[in-house]
Design goal:
17 helices, seven-stranded mixed beta sheet, alpha+beta, binds adenosine-5'-diphosphate
Length: 495
């Protein structure tokens, strides 16, 4: 039996899952690492802690499973996206802690770039909007604020990488400096049409090209692990940023196929095939995982507050003990009793874009119970996801035919049924909801020649399909009330 090691480097923990040749998980290990908040709005990780925690989980799954290193045919890597690490090529040491995707320190740099009128250029070339979220302004910040960094960068001594690049560098004993299409497409430096780092943007941002990793298809040869680490070398043959890896793991490989991850927030991606669709306002265009040089694209959108609304009911209002209790409580009432909950705790994103909206609950009467409020909170997750999906339908001009789901809150049957009812499409929940790790394993397995695309399609099994079962009038009235609630939540806060 051959195995594939899937490395899942997330924002709060590093995980490793060993999959056997049949795609079944054989061993799992996870280790959390520290989050550093040196100033308000700043979020950092220690790159060495990322590496050490990841290495620990790799060793742990090998020990737990009792397999020999030689049985691991390939490694796949999936990772938190956009987080930025710059290291010195001579010493191998990072010049600064990793600047995490959530970090807002470069908001001012972004404002300046917008004032220079770069928005359209960035959008056309990278599919992104100018935002502190993406790697480019984090690299600019490092070159401007770390003593001596600019000179080292100019002399070719600095390397920039997202977390996948850093892990490949460490795993290969410093031999490889590369990344994949999906991670490159989140840097705001990569031309997703020309498939190359963009000289005009590099010039505008004053980032030397010599810092950048080589970009490869997501499936194929990246590097071989150093023999010093595990005794013999293991090829790394799959790499994908977490959301794109999940899209791949859900086998959404055809244009129009769509997955939604229900976690703290929601991440929705729609595959658009070899066509890069203009994302309009509020969505992003990004690269989907590639298995050869032919580019693949996706549209991406997110809901800021999804499972977090359930956490709020649990931790702040204390109306439920565990997130999963929300399901039973929601089902204890026949309907939402006219209650609509807009969880705009941090404003509203796609398609409303109102940073002054705030969380609001409408339709309260003397008969409203906590069950109605909990039900309305779950329904809000489905309404917001439906809004995103409708935006994707609008920009592609194609109706969505089905939705594949994963993430913690996708375990909630009430929520999934309501999602299906409101979107009026089937919702498919796979048996294996570790889509991200699975996606990295699939990419590696294909890259190593162990699996074909056809074989992995056979491996994907549905746990449950939720079929729409709501009469059109009820559905229409829900959508009208939801939109009305959203309108009334807008503009509550002021500057
Ligand atoms: P993340 O990766 O963003 O931390 P997870 O995929 O682990 O998120 O999902 C956790 C989120 O899902 C939490 O916000 C939690 O409140 C919510 N959640 C988990 N289980 C359920 C459930 N059965 N019903 C509703 N929400 C849930």
């Amino acid at each position: 039996m051959k195995y594939i090691l899937s490395i899942d480097q997330g924002t709060t923990s590093s995980r490793s899952i060993l999959f056997d040749q049949n795609g079944e998980p054989a061993a799992f290990a996870q280790k959390e690492f520290r989050q550093y908040f040196p100033r308000p709005g700043w979020v950092e990780h220690d790159p060495e802690e990322i590496w050490e925690s990841q290495l620990w989980t790799i060793r742990e799954v090998i020990t737990k499973s009792g397999i020999s290193i030689k049985d691991i045919a390939a490694i796949g890597i999936t990772n938190q996206r956009e987080t930025t690490i710059v290291w010195n090529r001579q010493t191998g040491n990072p010049i600064h802690p990793a600047i995490v995707w959530q970090d807002r320190r470069t908001a001012g740099v972004c404002r300046a770039l917008k004032q220079e009128g770069l928005q359209d250029t960035v959008r056309q070339k990278t599919g992104l909007v100018i935002d502190a979220y993406f790697s480019a302004t984090k690299v600019i910040w490092l070159l401007e604020h770390v003593e001596g960094a600019r000179a080292l960068a100019e002399s070719g001594d600095l390397a920039f990488g997202t977390v996948d690049s850093w892990l490949i560098y460490k795993l290969s004993g410093g031999n490889a400096h590369c990344t994949d299409h999906t991670n490159a497409s989140r840097t705001m430096l990569y031309n997703i049409h020309g498939l190359d780092w963009d000289d005009e943007l590099l010039d505008a941002f004053a980032i030397p090209r010599s810092m950048l990793p080589e970009v490869k298809p997501s499936s194929g040869h990246f590097a071989v692990t150093s023999e010093d680490l595990f005794g013999s070398g293991i090829p790394i043959t799959g790499v994908g940023g977490d959301q794109q890896a999940a899209l791949f793991g859900q086998l959404c490989h055809q244009p129009g196929m769509i997955k939604n991850t229900y976690g703290t927030g929601c991440f929705m991606l729609m595959h658009t095939g070899e066509q890069c669709v203009d994302p309009g306002q509020g969505l992003l265009a990004t690269m989907a995982c590639t298995i050869d040089e032919r580019p693949q694209y996706a549209l991406e959108g997110s809901v800021f507050v999804a499972g977090a609304a359930i956490q709020w009911l649990r931790d702040e209002l204390e109306v439920i003990g565990h997130s999963a209790d929300s399901e039973k409580l929601a089902l204890s009432v026949p309907d939402n009793g006219g209650v609509y909950f807009v969880p705009a705790f941090t404003g509203l994103g796609t398609p409303y874009w109102d940073m002054y909206a705030r969380g609001s609950i409408f339709g309260l009467t003397r008969g409203t119970s906590k069950a109605h409020i909990v039900r309305a909170a779950l329904e809000s997750i489905a309404f917001q996801s439906h809004d995103l999906m409708s935006t994707m339908e609008e920009v592609t001009g194609q109706p969505v035919k089905g939705l594949r789901v994963d993430g913690g809150a996708s375990k909630n049957d009430f929520l999934m049924q309501f999602q299906s009812d409101i979107a009026n499409i089937p919702v498919q929940r796979p048996v294996q909801t570790e889509s991200t790790a699975m996606g990295a394993a699939y990419l590696a397995g294909i890259g190593a020649g162990i699996w074909s695309l056809a074989e992995i399609h056979q491996n994907w099994n549905v746990d449950k399909v939720f079929q729409p079962d709501m009469d059109p009038d009820t559905r229409a009235s829900h959508l009208v009330r939801w939109k009305e609630a959203v309108e009334r939540s807008k503009g509550w806060e002021s500057e």
